[in-house]
Amino acid sequence: MELLVASAIGVMTAAGMYLVLRLRTFPVILGMSLLTYAVNVFLFASGRLTIGAPPILRDGVTTYTDPLPQALVLTAIVISFGMTAVVVMIGLGAYLGSDDDHVDDAPVPRTSEPEDPA
Amino acid sequence: MTHWIIAPIVLPAMLAPFIVLAARYHVGIQRVFSVAGVLALIGISAGLAWQVSDGSVIYYRLGDWAAPFGIVVVGDRLSTLMILLTSVLALFVLLHAIGADWDRRGRHFHALFQFQLMGILGAFLTGDLFNLFVFFEVLLIASYGLMIHAGGNARLRAGVQYVLFNLIGSTLFLFALGSIYAETGTLNMADLAQRVALIGPEETVGIRVAAVLLLLVFAIKAALVPLHFWLPSSYAEAPAPVAALFAIMTKVGAYAIIRVYTLIFPPDLDVTAGLFDLWLLPAALVSLAIGMIGVLAAQRLDRLVAYSIIGSMGMVLVSIALFTPEGIAAALYYIVHSTLAGAVLFLVVDLVRTGRGSVELTTQPPMAGTALTAGLFFLAAIAMAGLPPLSGFLGKLLVLDAAYGTDLMTWIWAIVLGSSLVSILGFARAGSVLFWKAHSVAPTEEEESTKDGDDGGDEDEPDAGAPSRLAYAATGGLLALLVAHTVFAGQVHGYTIDMAAQLFAPDSYISTVLDTPGKLSAPKEGN
């Protein structure tokens, strides 16, 4: 069980890092999602792996799982979900505006453009 | 338990949705509420700062849950000074944005601005590491919106980089928090301080990883080389008032380093052995050098200012990395200075852009309102480069004094002094190209420009012409604060020494947060 979870986190992190280094918006965003999945599982595991135990006090139960990491994961999921949506929108805007989805700086030095009110 | 300390978080959090919901189509009403909110914030922050100036620690338990279980908001000398600095900066930035009409160029400027303030103030006040992460996200998500405010392709592209870099930072932060929780079973800073001290020397692997990861996260926020790559284009492309507000965001990283590494991982712990003198200090010196070389090499004024921010953060982190009370006191003095100086410079960039239509460092005919803009640039550049008489000089002197007699003293003195020279050259070059050489080129036929350009049509820019008086007043106001920071340097530095003393004796912080009635259990031995 520990091996499975640990290797899942490791593989997802590695794949996420690889994709993040691809320098194009779509793979980078995919890589970011993989990284956030990895970190969510990691946060879960930080409260120790317990199987089939309730997180909330209940009559006749002696083993519990730590409820705090679950709350943390919930927060992290909400935040990363929102952030992914934001980055997709900004990335889409940048791509449609400049017809180029590289995330690094443009190769030719641009001349500064006037502020156009959008 | 005072309730006022939660107000700097709740007030902008309520004001922002109100502005979105009730005043969406009325920029005038938005302005009134936004400025009123920031004025109230200044009042509250000043009150809080006055309240804790005797060295006491005030706190607020959210939902009245006892400390290690619930979230606490804590105010001591450091955090209240930072919120006061933030709200004062926000006022002038807001006035400049209104004066330069930035809030009309896109929607929801004021709401995003308030959310940004909520995130920054929350990050300064919180006493819980996970809550710090949440406030980082609040300030980041608002900053994404502000950063691409008013649109434009260059801005969107820079925005993508900025967002992605910070997302990776947030992911790292979560990894660090997960490891800390796995090792100690708590995320409350005061509780962590006690538990980390109990970890035996042979069990420090996990917590050491967490300490290094956290330092990385804060270093990304503080734009420490080699984690600074997000800063130049995003600060240069962001709307100028937003960039000026962002001047405080790098300081959030510096604040977090000071807070976490004095309270939770104090330098005498073996967990953090070598973290500062071996890693942080050299990296900070490199940032200082790279930042100032960037100032010299920049082709555009906005990039130049962005690199000067990196350099000044390097300066702050050099002083922090000494990790002596004198070093921290000097760093805090310099933080206030560099926030104000960086913000003034970004506002001056906006004045130049408005008057001139471009911020390329190439010779162009004189801009509208050249004299006043040049004067402001001159003073701000003196402050940022660290020439006497302004506070940059005093700040550098304090840092040099704190570094006197340490192992790396030769390196620190050489790089601080050398980089100052380089930055003076860089600023002098930019200033002479922008303001002096402008008189040596003849205006082209269609640009019948006059020296003060009150015809308002001397550039292709639709809104070229002298910037508004309010924009000048806001910039000048910030500069006046900088002068006040110089004039009252003795008092301010005395206060930062008190602050550093409080940081290096965290017992009152810990006991105030933890030993409150209603506390449910004592921390367990280790884990």
UniProtKB/TrEMBL annotation, chain A:
It is a multi-pass membrane protein. It is found in: Cell membrane. Belongs to the CPA3 antiporters (TC 2.A.63) subunit C family. It holds the Pfam family Oxidored_q2. The chain crosses the membrane at residues 6-21, 28-51, 71-96. Gene3D superfamilies: 1.10.287.3510. NCBIfam families: PRK09094.1. It comes from the Bacteria. GO terms for cellular component: plasma membrane. The lineage of its organism: Bacteria, Pseudomonadati, Pseudomonadota, Alphaproteobacteria, Rhodobacterales. It comes from Pseudaestuariivita atlantica. This is NADH-ubiquinone oxidoreductase subunit 4L. Keywords: Cell membrane, Membrane, Transmembrane, Transmembrane helix, Ubiquinone. The keyword Phosphoprotein does not apply. Residues 98-118 are annotated as: Disordered. Its main location: membrane. InterPro entries: CPA3_antiporter_subunitC, NUOK/Mnh_C1-like.
Automatic annotation (TrEMBL), chain B:
It is found in: Cell membrane; Membrane. InterPro entries: CPA3_Na-H_Antiporter_D, NADH_UbQ_OxRdtase, ND/Mrp_TM. NDH-1 shuttles electrons from NADH, via FMN and iron-sulfur (Fe-S) centers, to quinones in the respiratory chain. The immediate electron acceptor for the enzyme in this species is believed to be ubiquinone. Couples the redox reaction to proton translocation (for every two electrons transferred, four hydrogen ions are translocated across the cytoplasmic membrane), and thus conserves the redox energy in a proton gradient. The chain crosses the membrane at residues 6-25, 32-52, 78-97, 162-182, 205-231, 238-258, 278-297, 304-324, 330-349, 370-388, 408-428. Residues 127-419 form the NADH:quinone oxidoreductase/Mrp antiporter transmembrane domain. One of its GO terms (molecular function) is NADH dehydrogenase (ubiquinone) activity. Belongs to the CPA3 antiporters (TC 2.A.63) subunit D family. Residues 444-463 have a biased composition (Acidic residues). PANTHER family: NA(+)_H(+) ANTIPORTER SUBUNIT D1, NADH DEHYDROGENASE. One of its GO terms (cellular component) is plasma membrane. GO terms for biological process: ATP synthesis coupled electron transport. It is a multi-pass membrane protein. Its main location: membrane. Pfam families: Proton_antipo_M. Residues 444-466 are annotated as: Disordered. This is Cation:proton antiporter. The keyword Cytoplasm does not apply. Keywords: Cell membrane, Membrane, Transmembrane, Transmembrane helix. The keyword Nucleus does not apply.
